[in-house]
Amino acid sequence: MSNTLPKIAWIGLGIMGSPMSENLIKAGYDVTGYTLEREKLDRLTAAGGTAAASVAEAVRGADVIITMVPASPQVEAVAYGPDGILDNARSGALLIDMSSITPQTSVDLARAARDKGVRVLDAPVSGGEAGAVEAVLSIMVGGEQADFDEARPVFEALGRTIVLCGPHGSGQTVKAANQLIVAVNIQACAEAVVFLEKSGVDLGAALDVLNGGLAGSTVLTRKKDNFLNRDFLPGFRIDLHHKDMGIVTDAARTVGAALPVGAVVAQLVASLRAQGDGGLDHSALLRAVERLSGARL
């Protein structure tokens, strides 16, 4: 039976990209992927995808091209230049960038792509590694309604909450707000954990009851075990949250929005990186609070 679903090229098979691309394969899509690490390509082929030797090879002939890379410089590196997406994608292809980058990078990419006949959506996600694996991500999208409607079946294989937020760049703006809320929330939880432990309270019991009331949150649900077990295996690295806090503080300054608490948490994230914790999960904000409270880590 011939596959009538659009052919997908996937660029970037990291913590998020690998499980997301595999969910598309499970949904019946023909996925050709490219990433820098050989073992990630092997994982893709083991899941039923096809490995490409370059960005250009991956995108040639694809109907939909999805990028999931760390930051704006990597998006620009894979999109532009003779070996990049725009010079090798077919006219009429749909490029969906699911990376978390600056809103301006998304706006510029959409403009450059239009000249090549390529349509673009910015579609960053929230939900972390668990949300990617379980295909329950929240997907915030910027771009044209018609392109969003066309991409919806692809998004539905990846996430549960899928919303067009406005024109190009809007998805990234909403993602920046998401990262602000998540960082402040993790910081508040981390402070509560240290306060509770120093007070001699049963931490597991305390977090259970807190999570059942107004203090409850997806952050507390997802990160409770990280706090309890001091397990900071990265689902979302401090390094990447540091990048995102830079995006939201810069964008807020541009539009004239004050982020007083966000600015403090951005500095705490930066301090964790400076102490060598950049590769840990963002729940490791707990380590910063512990250090401030006298622990020698």
TrEMBL record:
InterPro entries assigned:
6-PGluconate_DH-like_C_sf (IPR008927), 6PGD_dom2 (IPR013328), 6PGDH_NADP-bd (IPR006115), HIBADH-like_NADP-bd (IPR029154), HIBADH-related (IPR015815), NAD(P)-bd_dom_sf (IPR036291), Tartro_sem_red (IPR006398)
The lineage's top-level taxon is Bacteria
Query: What GO MF terms are annotated?
Result: 2-hydroxy-3-oxopropionate reductase activity
Keyword NAD (UniProt): yes
Q: Does the keyword Oxidoreductase apply?
A: yes
Q: For this protein, what is the EC number?
A: 1.1.1.60
Output the Pfam families linked to this UniProt entry. Answer: NAD_binding_11, NAD_binding_2
Signal sequence coordinates: none
Domain (3-hydroxyisobutyrate dehydrogenase-like NAD-binding): residue spans on this chain = 169-288
Keywords for the protein's UniProt record, in alphabetical order: NAD, Oxidoreductase
Residue stretches making up the 6-phosphogluconate dehydrogenase NADP-binding domain: 7-166
* Family, as annotated: Belongs to the HIBADH-related family.
The protein here is known as 2-hydroxy-3-oxopropionate reductase
